[in-house]
Amino acid sequence: MTLRELFLIMLLGWACATGAQAFTQELRDVRVTSAMEGVMERKDVVLPYNWDRVHHSRPGDATFEVPFSLPGEPSEPYGAYISRVGNLSEIWLNGALLSRNGDLDTANLVDYAKVPLHVIIPSQLLQKDNLFRIHIHADGGRRGGLSKVIIGPESEVRSLFEVAYRWRVTGSIAVAVFSLMVGVMALVLWVTQSDRGQARGFKRDSLYLYAGVAELCWMVRLSDVVLVHPPLNWPWWGIVQSMAYAGWVCCVALFCHDVAGWHRHASMRWVRVGLWSMVLSSAPLAYWALTRHEDLFLTGWYGFATFLFIGYGLFYFAAALRRPSAERLLVAAVGVFNVLVGLRDWMVIRISDNFGEVPWMRYSSVLFGLALAYIVIMRFREASAQSRDLMRNMAAKVKEKELALDASYRQLELLAREQERTAERTRILRDMHDGVGSHISSAIRQLQSGKASDAQLLQTLRDSLDQLKLSIDAMNLPRGDITALLANLRYRLEPRFAASDIELQWQVDVLPPLASLDAKAMRQLQFMVSEALSNVLQHARASVLRIELRTTPQGGAQLRVIDNGCGFDLQRVQRKGLSSLRERAVAIGARLEVRSSPGGTVVEIMLEPEPMASPE
Hints:
The protein is α+β, with helices and mostly antiparallel strands. About 55% of the residues lie in helices and about 20% in strands.
C-alpha cells in the first residue's frame, strides 16, 4: 500500500467514525480455488496473492471468493478498486458479471494485470452479505495474481484508483515519452556532431549514441505498462523486456564511462565486451526462466546486475571526487541514486512478497535524461564561447580586408555609374539615329531629289519630330504599364490622325503592370507600336484606326492595331519596318502576328506574364 492510499483510507475511516453511513472496506481474507496442470487446490489465503511466488511461475487459473458485509443496503453506487488482477480476469458480484478483462481461455496474449482496475457497483446489486467471485488466468512469470480489494462509495474509491492510475500508468507514459524525446534528440546529435576530442578526421561522439540507445531501450521497457496487447506473445515479449532493461543499464554505464573520459583508456575494449555480454546473456536467461518456469535465473541475473553496478557506481563516484567536474559529479550522483533505487526495486519486487508495487526506477531514470540535457547545454555554451572567440578573430581580419576593399568598392561604384550614364547616352543616340536620324535623312534626300512635294516633306519632318518626342518620353516610361504607354502615344499622335482624317477608336482596358516588361522592354514596345501607327499614317490610306488592349487568360496582354486601309501582300512585300517589328518582338519575348488584306491590316502583339524563352 502506498502512503497516499493509506492516507485516503484513514481519512475515509475518520469520516465513517463521525457518522457517515457509507464506509470503505479493505478486503484481504479470501478463499482461493486454483487449478494448475490438472491439479485443483482450495485453501484460505490473505491477499495479496502473488501467483508466480505461490505456483513457481507456472501458468494456471484461480477463483477467489471474497465475502464482505454492509451495515445496510446503500442508496448510492459503490466502487471496487483493485491494484492488480489477472493477467486475465472476470469479476462477479452476487452472481452478476461486473467486469471482464480478456478471454480466460486465451493465454499468453493480452495482459490486464499491469494497470489498476476500477469497477462501478450498482446499488441494486448490493445486499447486507455479499460475495465477490474473481476468476483469473495467470501466465507463468508474468506477475499475475490478485491484490487486496477495496470497496466503498464510488466517488471515494475512485479517488484511490485515480491516484494509483496516475502513479503507475500516467507517470509511466510521461516518462516513456520523455525517454523517446531524449533518445531521438541524442541520436540526432550523434549523427550531426563530431567528437570534440578527435584531432584529425571526423568521428561521431559516442556519448550521444549510448545515451540515445539507453533512452530508447527504456522507452521500450516502460511501454509494457500501457500495451495491454503487446506486439509479441508471451514469453517472447518478456524476453524483449529483459533485453531492453539490460540494454538500458549497459548503455547508461557506457554513457557514464564516456563522461568520465575513460572511453579513451585501453581497457574500454574489455568494458564493451563485458557489457554487451550482459545484454546478450539476458535473452537466453529470460527464455530459460520464462519457458522452464525457473524465475530464480532471472532474479539472479537482475541481482547480479544490481550489485555489479552498485560497485561500479561507488567506484565512479570516488573517481569523480578525485577529479571533479560538473559533468562527472552530476552523472556520478545520478548513477549512485539510480543503483540504490534499483536495489530497492530488486528487493521489493523480486525478493520480497510484495505484489502490485510500482518500480521506482521508472521515475528515477528521468535523471539520466536531465543529466544528458545539462551536458548538451554546457557543451553548447562552451562551443558558443569558442565560436565567439573565433568570430572576434575573424572580425578583426575582416575589418582589415574591409578597409582595403572599401576604396575599391567606391571606385567600382563610380565606374558603374559612369557606365550607366554611358549606356543611357548610347541608347538615346541609337534611338535618335534609328528614329529621328532616319527621318531627317529621308527629308534631306527628298530635298536633294527635288521630286518630293511640300506635303511629303512636311510629313517626313513631322515623323521626325514625333520620333524625337517619343525618344524623350521613353526615358520616363512606367515599368510594365502598357496602358500608360498607349495613352502617351495617343497624346502625341492623335493630332496627326485627326489632320489625316483618320478616326481613332480607343478600346483599351486598364491593365495592371506586367512584371516581364522592364524599362528596356517598354522602350522596344513603344517603338513597335509607334512603327505600326506610322505605317498606317504613311501607307494604309485608312479612314479608321482602332487600338485594342485587353488581358489574356494567362495574365498577359493582347495589343492590336487595326486599320481599314488598302492592306498589302505579306508574301510578296518585304518591308524594313516589318522586319524591325519582328526583331523588337523577339527582343522582348513577345509574339507578333501581322494579317493584311485589301480591306485592312491587323498588327497583334501578345505579351506573356513572364518572359518567353528565346530560341536557340
